[in-house]
Amino acid sequence: AVVSTQSTGALAAAKKDNDFIYHERVPSAADLPVIGRAPMAKPTALPTELEGWSDVFTKLVPLNVQQAATMYASRRDHLVHLEVNKLKEATTQLNSVLNQMNLPAALEDLSGKEIPVSLLEKSAERHRKEISQEQD
């Protein structure tokens, strides 16, 4: 009842404003075109990942898996350390053997085209010793 009284009063005020101010002809309801549907919002596809948001549960790992991964990493590091130490010892031993054999300094070009320089030096030294022994 209150709504109908208010709407009747609003209709009377609108007719009065139209008659005094606008002077427009008010069409009947049958003459008005049917109002079509208008989209209220555009549909958009949801992104697979929301920007600035990450799922906290993707990083959760069970405790036994974490412990197994930790044990694996420590065993792997230990084995790598053992192998590196073996390589260091072998390198040290190889270097000492090479030093005892005077290698690679003793290696020379033995292609056969020329007499090696070290052989010429040793020959000259030997020749000098023989000359000095003959003079004595």
Provide the descriptors you would attach to this structure in a database record.
mainly alpha; 136 residues; rod-shaped; single chain; 0% strand
What report would you give on this structure?
By secondary structure, the chain is mostly helical. Helices cover 57% and strands 0% of the residues. The protein has 3 helices and no strands. The protein has helices spanning 2-22, 63-100, 117-135. The longest helix has 38 residues, at 63-100. The model has no long low-confidence stretch (mean pLDDT 85).
CA-based gyration radius: 52 Å
The major beta sheet can be summarized as:
none
| Mass-distribution shape | rod-shaped
Total beta strand runs = 0
Q: Structural class of the secondary structure composition?
A: mainly alpha
Q: Overall pLDDT, averaged? A: 85
Helix content estimate: 55-70%
Cα distance spanning the termini: 151 Å
H/E element order: HHH
Uncertain ranges: none
Q: What percent strand?
A: under 5%
